[in-house]
Amino acid sequence: MKYNLVVKGVFSAAHRLMGSGGKCENMHGHNFRVELTVGGNDLGDAGMLIDFSDLKGILSRILKDLDHSDLNTLEPFREKSPSSESIAEYIFGRAELDLTGSSAEVMSVTVAESDTAYATYISQRNGPA
Known about the structure:
- The chain is of the alpha+beta class.
- It has one domain: 6-pyruvoyl tetrahydropterin synthase/QueD (Tetrahydropterin Synthase, Chain A, 2-Layer Sandwich), CATH 3.30.479.
- It contains 2 helices and 5 strands, in the order ββαβαββ.
- A 5-stranded mixed β-sheet has the order 3-1-2-4-5.
- Strand 4 and strand 5 form a beta hairpin.
- 29% of the residues are buried.
């Protein structure tokens, strides 16, 4: 891809990581930080891959559905532990749907649960970033 754009967002939520075998099986919360990276080769007439405000809007709508929730009770995580990895994959899929028909495609989503711990889900089409 010639161009990569990144937008960031935050949400607060609680979760339990069932089957982790540790203290994270107890309910606890994070102020999650999210980075959504999209890429593409073709710029529109305005010289942009996608307007940053449109991209921020996509991420904001996705995070609004997660914010101030018990992630374990949400449909995407009822059968799948809401780990940072799973959350990144979920956001990736939602963003992909929202970008259908756009010249931009989702490259990766990074979800950080602290300053020192984060997970990235990377597009399987393009290999590691």
